[in-house]
Specification:
2 copies of one chain form a homodimer. Chain A is of the alpha+beta class and 223 residues long. Chain A has helices at 16-26, 72-84, 97-102, 113-117, 179-182, 219-222; strands at 4-7, 30-31, 33-38, 44-49, 53-57, 60-66, 86-91, 121-122, 131-132, 137-149, 154-166, 186-188, 192-202, 213-214. In chain A, strands 4-3-7-10-11-6-5 form a 7-stranded antiparallel β-sheet. In chain A, a hairpin with a 4-residue loop joins strand 10 and strand 11. Chains A and B meet through strand 1, helix 1, strand 2, strand 5 and strand 6 of A and strand 1, helix 1, strand 2, strand 5 and strand 6 of B.
Chain lengths: 223, 223
């Protein structure tokens, strides 16, 4: 397949918005999340993010990236997280992705994106940050660290998972969560929403043996 | 929807492998990449990773996570990156995902995963690390930093994109890369491979206006 070469050295020859969209999509598929927080007065904030990544299972840590001059919503989220030390991460499904995307609009600080876009703040089990009731997989986290990245003044927010809420039908006997069953979406670039379909689960790889698929509960319906 | 609560406090009640698979999948969909490197003698190494994330567009930075006691392949990759200061990240498509998964087997250090799994090392434009010829989107990076994470001894590898190679048909007029057109896959958990289908691209969100979809080139065939 003939491929075009695009060089960073020549990035000045591209329009700025072209370059931002190009680089934002070259990192591949990203998970679709809403981060839920409250400020010290109890006002709720909700922001869409696509930079969540797995950092480890023991302890269970997730990271996400906050840009220095990104849309104001994630900045408000970060200020709330630094004040309250807790936040929620909520998977986005097909039913709520337009509302989730709408949280990226520049609402004033005193406006709750929950009511502005029509999603429901859910408080439970004594956790101080609001979950998104409509979300299929909800995660409550405690802040561990905000790590500065010197190369571009972004920050990586690291949190430890305290609670997870999801439909038990989505949890396979081996612990794997079937995200197709849960209905979670994937994002690419700044604005593209995708529904993944499973090709296969593959067995733990060994040197002298070709990779083989693992039979999945409900695989016939997922594929 | 009735949801089950899973608490980190009670993680001792789960089998260790159950917990690892559960937490590895709760972070949502991840991009599917092969990292290509060489050691100081020119021996090639190839490893599958699913932790790549976008850190910024200007300069164009990508991060990925290396665990302290993960499969040996990513450790060999990290040693090579620290010695050579360069590496490639290569998108994985439907045609090569079984071979890509197979790179996670514990091959001896002197074995090249390229030949062990049947993928082709491609050198071009003077870049010292090998690309995967069969990959639809190839990225060449210079190492900027290896950032230690104190909470679990993982490390975040930060690199700056130097070169991108892809079919120009996948580049939309606004700079967005159509990953469906490119054929890139998404991973969930440790072993599940997915082919995403586009639901919609949504316009830049504004406070007083409901979110609307952007018409896409080729959307009829993608949807």
């Amino acid at each position: 397949m003939k491929k075009q070469r695009i060089r960073t050295e020549q990035r000045e020859t591209f329009e700025k918005r072209f370059w931002i969209k190009f680089i934002n999509s070259i990192s591949g598929y990203k998970p679709a999340f809403l981060v839920g927080t409250t400020d010290t007065s109890g006002n709720t904030n909700l922001a869409i993010i696509s930079s969540v990544f797995h950092l480890g299972a023991t302890p269970p840590l997730l990271g996400f990236v906050v840009r220095p001059h990104s849309t104001k919503s994630p900045r408000h989220s970060l200020e709330n997280i630094q004040a309250s030390h807790c936040y929620t991460l909520n998977h986005i499904n097909k039913e709520i992705f337009p509302q989730a995307h709408q949280t990226s609009a520049r609402y004033p600080r005193e406006t709750s994106e929950f009511s502005a876009v029509g999603l429901t703040a859910e408080y439970k089990d004594g956790f101080a940050a609001p979950y998104v009731e409509e979300s299929p997989i909800q995660i409550g986290l405690q802040l561990r660290e905000v790590l500065p990245i010197k190369w571009n003044n972004t920050q990586i927010v690291i949190g430890e998972i305290q609670d997870c809420y999801l439909n038990e039908k989505a949890i396979m006997p081996d612990g794997y969560i079937d995200l197709v069953e849960a209905g979670s979406l994937a994002i690419s670039g700044l604005d593209s929403y995708h529904e993944p379909q499973r090709l296969a689960r593959l067995a733990y790889a060994k040197p002298q043996q070709a990779t083989r698929p693992i039979p999945l509960q409900g695989e016939a319906s997922a594929k």
